[in-house]
Each structure stands twice: as structure tokens, then as C-alpha cells.
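PROTEIN–LIGAND DATA SHEET

This sheet pairs a single protein chain with one bound small molecule, zinc ion, given as SMILES. Inputs appear in the order they were entered. The predicted three-dimensional arrangement of chain and ligand is reported afterwards as a C-alpha cell string under its own label.
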Amino acid sequence: MKKLLLLFCFYGSIGALNAQTLTAEEQKIVLQTEKNFPQMMELLKASVNINSGTFNIQGVKQVGELYAAELRKLGFSIEWVGLPDSLKRAGHLVAYRKGKKGKKLFLIGHLDTVFEPDMPANPFTQLSDTTITGQGINDMKGGDVIIIAAMKALHELNLLNDATVTIYMTGDEENAGEPREVSRGDFITRAKAHDIALGFEGANGLNSIATARRGSSGWQLEVEGKQGHSSGVFTGAGYGSIYEASRIINTFRETLGKEKYLSFNPGLFMGGSEIDVNLEAQKGSASGKTNIISPKTVVIGDLRFLSEEQKNNARKTMQQITAQSLPGTKARIRFEDGIPAMAPTSGNEALAEELSKTNLALGFGKVTPGNPGSRGAGDISYIAAYLDCLDGFGASGKGAHAPGEVLNVKEFPKLMKRAAVFIYRLTR
Ligand SMILES: [Zn+2]
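PREDICTION REPORTED AS:
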């Protein structure tokens, strides 16, 4: 028995050792990626210097055409997914090739940035040995170019011939068109035909990957009270809507405020004798008198969560708290879905372990799952319920969504090599 166990350990460790060194083929991938690096920097520069704010439809399409031209040369079939005019969005770039070997991969990028043409220009500029600035360089044209660099190296070594890879670059990630069923319908349908999704949003260095992202949603609380003279507030006239709304909101915090990865924030709280709230614009006006018990209060807030289960449980508790009305009041709460969560499934975690082996083999150290609280929701969240997912394969840097956004150019080639070797391993 002991011998058997020893034998098992021996083979187990040999297996692990092999996974943590590069094969001859993988070494060729690394060299090919290095060889292509200057060309990929040119592609990055060209794409960063095209303004592609979400609402600059021509610009988004132009970036799409630039990347499509590269991907066509690498044996990909190209489609442009248009959207109805009412959405006022450019549409999405899809590039795919189909085969029979290995896992079917769905690689996610986006063509748009938060910078519209009327904002100050920030062209591609090398600031130092380690940093380059430019609009969308980190979020996420750097990630888009990493996808193309990985595909180029693999294609040139004839390693994509029998692989199934779909590259989906949305044109409105920073501000998705409504309704979402329309702007993300094709994205979700295509993703479902794959085994694994990899998101190329900004990397948090070489040693962290996102196995989870929180989802976001909203709620509206409406409370009614009996209007009356303030002197009777504790003696039978009823507590009024402001006391009741305060009780509800504070009890939410006391009951659920310590739950890990759950957060909810009342963003607007308006009560009095007369209120006029525009829920869509998230603003309004109110009037009231100190001697009148308030008849009407409205509160709106968000709710962020790590799994559908956590979201549903929180909603149930919030319903129960809302229903325990103080005398003379009644309240109701409505919930609104937003972006789903990417939950930290065992499948995602197993994939992160595989990535860690690839990273070690490349000499870049271990990879561990990052803190899900540190990322907002993203495109990958729409499909996380259907396949194993990792996000954060893109460029490292800082300042996403701010004018001085930078890319770390020292880590950039390493992230390309990692993507190429990991994709190679998954598609065997
Ligand atoms: Zn992004």
C-alpha cells in the first residue's frame, strides 16, 4: 500500500514537473511571439491612435477593420454583427476558425473606449522604458493586440489548424446598448457553443487572474405613511414614511452589511409631503414641513453580488424586512436585474490552476485568483453561467478610464507569450 502510494506520488510529481517546463514546440511559440513583437507594437499604436469612443460609430468600426485585416491573414473567417439603428452602437467584430481538436475557445475583447472625440486627445506616446500612454491602451486595445499576437504566433507555426477559436470583440463594452438582450444576444448565443471563455481585460500583473467578477443590479423602495399632525407621531397617528424608510434601510445594513462580496448602497433618499422623483434620471424635488408626518418616501440603490444565489437570498431578506411595517405605514420594494455575476466556480478555479502551471513553465511565477471585489462587471459576466471563464489576460498598466492611462511595456511581451502558450495547451 505504502509502495503504491509512493509510486503514485512519484508519477504525480513527474506529471507536474512536465507541465511546469516548456516543450520544444512551446519554446518555438515563445520565440515566434518575440519575433513578432515589433509588428504588434505597430498594430497597437495604429489602433490606439484611432478614436473609438463607444458613441463614435465610425471610429469603432475602423478599429474593427484594422483588427479584422490582421485576423483574416491568420486564417480566420470574419463577420461584423450589426445592431438596429435604435441602439446607436457600432456593432461587434467576430472572427472564428473551426476544428476538432482540444477545447473550443471563446476569446473576448472590445473595440470601444470611454474616450469620445470631444475629449482631449492622447495619442500613443512612450513615456519611459516601462510605460506608454494612449487612449484605451490598457482598457483594452492592449488586450486586443495580445489576442492577435497569440493567434499570429500559433498560426505561423501551423498550430491552429484543427482548433476551434472564436474571437469576439464588442463595440460597446463601456456602455452596452439597450436592451441588453439585443446588444448581447448574439454574443451569448455564440459563446454557448464553446467550452472555455478567456477575457482580455486589463491584467493585474503576471501573477493574478480573475476567476470571479461581481454582478450589479438595482432596487427601488417606495414607502407610504398617513399624513397627519407631527405631535401624534408616537401616539397613534402613525410613524410616517420617513421613519419607516429609515428603519428599512438601516435594518438592511444591520442584517446583511457584513456578508462577504455583498454590497448595497442607497444612492438617493427622498421623502416629505410632496415628492417628485424621476427614477431614470435619478433625481427629483421634495418639500415637507416639520409639523407634518411625511406621507411619501422613495429610496433607490444598487446591489452587488458574487452569485445568483447570493443575489436572490439578499433580495428575499430585503423583502422580509420591507414587509415588517411600522404602524400606519406600508412599503414595497422592487428589484431590477443589471449585469449577472461571474461566480467563482470550481471550473474557473481549475482553469486558473492550469494557467498557473503555464506561468511557472514560462518562468513567470505562480498565478492566484484575484479579489473578485476589485473588478466591476464586464462582458464575460453575461456568459459566465454557461462555460468556464477567466478574465484579466490583457495588458497590465494603470489609470483605465482616466486621461493618463498607461500600459506596462515590460510585461506586455510576457503577457503575449503566456496567452499564446496557454491557448496552445488548451487547444491540444
Ligand atoms: Zn474594458
